[in-house]
Amino acid sequence: MNLYRNKKIAFFFMFPALLIILVFIYYPILENFIYSLYRWSSFSSQKEYIGLENYRRLFQDPVFYQALKNNLLYCIVSIIFQVGLGLVIAAVLEEKGFRRFQPFFRSIYFMPSVISITVIGLLFQLIYHPTIGLLNQSLIAVGLKSLTRAWIGEKQTAMYAVIAVSQWQSIGYIMLLFLVAIQKIPEGIYESAVIDGANGWQKFWYITVPQVRGTIVLSSILTIIGGFKVFDEVYVMTAGGPGRATEVLASFLYRSGFRNDEMGYASSIATVIFIITFLITLLQLKTTEKQEG
């Protein structure tokens, strides 16, 4: 009887949160899929049912594949720098010789994470400026004028320039996640490894990495989802240009829905973004469960 009563009490406390999740997360996802089956405009109350036509059109659109390619590139680079380099920086800051300086470097690395992306976008527009930008002026100052270019004005470099901004902004946040995880590792494990003759690299690879595997999975999932949802940097810096060189799925969705007023088509893009991120998350979680099992 007490067990049944405890379950009722637990459900009573969980119900408000569950209701919020259902109303503001799951219902909009379902409604978005329903909207993707129609051709409709935000300026009209009329909706024309067209079934899966929006999806057929989407998978035949070359811009979709260009945007998907850019999102995949975003994810790959972010995993390498945000997760990989963030883990390395956290491990270095946790070394005994660096711990006294850790608060300073922790603040320096994390500070970009709290700056508005609009401010950052405008700042890097100036840095990348072909004539007065800090990057080109620095290259000229060290005798590398041949490397100067319009970084966000050329198709070959624009996407990489935008991606670099995200790495600079987000690496500090991922680094903090790893710092917390590393600090939970018992110091005795490292001391035993040193007694056995392990060097710094061996301690990192055979102790730190396995011990923070859960954080690696979590940060990887957050990074990949962020890579597929990225919008602000692209919109502020290039708006998807030059041409469609920096178009990503979110900017493609925005252009389709709010510029071209094809709301059903935009809903189909949103559904695809959700499915991709959902499947990647499931895959990573299943892979981790197998490794831990």
From TrEMBL:
Membrane topology annotation: Multi-pass membrane protein
Organism: Filifactor villosus
CDD domains: TM_PBP2
Keywords: Cell membrane, Membrane, Transmembrane, Transmembrane helix, Transport
Transmembrane domains' residue ranges: 9-29, 71-93, 105-128, 159-182, 263-283
Gene3D superfamilies reported for this sequence: MetI-like
Family, as annotated: Belongs to the binding-protein-dependent transport system permease family.
Protein known as: Carbohydrate ABC transporter permease
PROSITE patterns: ABC_TM1
